Amino acid sequence: MEKNLKQILIVDDEANVRVVFSDVLRRESYIVKVAKDGPEAIKAVDEETFDLALVDLRMPCMDGIEVLENIKKRKPQIPVIIYTGYGSITTAVEAMRKGAADYLNKPFSPHELKSSIRKALEGAEQRN
Question: Fewest 10 Å CB contacts: which of 6, 59, 68, 74?
């Protein structure tokens, strides 16, 4: 595999969302791993190297903000994009304050998703 391929972690409790996002990102030549909840995502972050995490806000066990906080504690260099179908200014501000690279409200287009990921990856590369 090429070294310049970026690995993205998708964290969502809905299997259909994981499949759709995975398909879109694999077509863009990203390496994709999925996690069905926060604890699985944290385990993956501890065990593997990711260039970006895409995290749903509303999940059972651990919400997206908690996942964001855990990722940032473990590997602060990983950009985290929070997305939700239940967006509010309050949660957007909280996510950004806690280190999210972006906050997307569903529904969003594949183009918006890819653009957000590109910007977050470029920002992370500039910081390194």
Answer: 74
DSSP code of residue 52? E
Q: Which of 30, 46, 84 is nearest to 22 (CA)?
A: 30
Q: Is the pTM of this model over 0.90?
A: yes
pLDDT category of residue 125 using cuts at 50, 70 and 90: confident
Q: CA-to-CA distance for 97 and 3, rounded, in angstroms?
A: 32
How far, rounded to the nearest angstrom, does the alpha carbon of residue 119 sit from its chain's CA centroid? 13
Instruction: Describe the crossing of helices 110-127 and 15-27 by its angle, rounded to 10 degrees.
Output: 70
Q: Which H or E element spans position 31?
A: strand 31-35
